[in-house]
Specification:
With 195 residues, the protein is of the alpha/beta class. The chain has helices at 32-41, 59-62, 65-70, 89-93, 116-121, 167-177; strands at 2-5, 12-16, 21-24, 51-53, 74-78, 109-111, 127-131, 140-144, 148-150, 183-185, 192-193.
Length: 195
Amino acid sequence: MVTKLKYGNTNTYFVRGTKGGLLIDTDYAGTLQDLFKALKKSVISITNITYILATHYHPDHIGLVSELQKMGIKLLLIDTQCDYVHFADDIFNRENHLQYEPIDEKNATIIDCCESRSFLVDLGIAGEIVKTASHSKDSISIILDNGVCIVGDLEPMEYLDAYDENISLKNDWKLIMSYNPKVIYYAHANEKYFA
């Protein structure tokens, strides 16, 4: 089951497995109370969240990761994301009022995408994580066997013609569509359903 949590500018998704839960993306730093309100509204307890996974490490997707880590939620990190974990630190450091603490990647669980299916099975989630690096080199998407795809900031497929020469974007969409999705969930756009 996937729950969309809208409490700021970035959509956050909670995937409830039979043995654990996965929170995908957060909003900007300073929105923790808004996340709590959204969780309460959706009848999700913070204790339901086992891992947090970022679709990529831009500031509007990871602003609450370090705070959630301090609450005992584990960070799931894809190996291709390791070099980007601190991408947003300088941005947050310019905003002292946020009191942002950098992410502690030393305590993260690091996996390769090819290990993601077996990792997710341990949470009771059927699906996998794939690299979709056309937005940024650390971008990933989550593909669930029930047809749900969470693609972060992947440029919506309706705009592909405007990116005629972007082979990487076309290849990302070719990969996503090879899973025959039923719905695409974006970080900043409305979901797209397929018949």
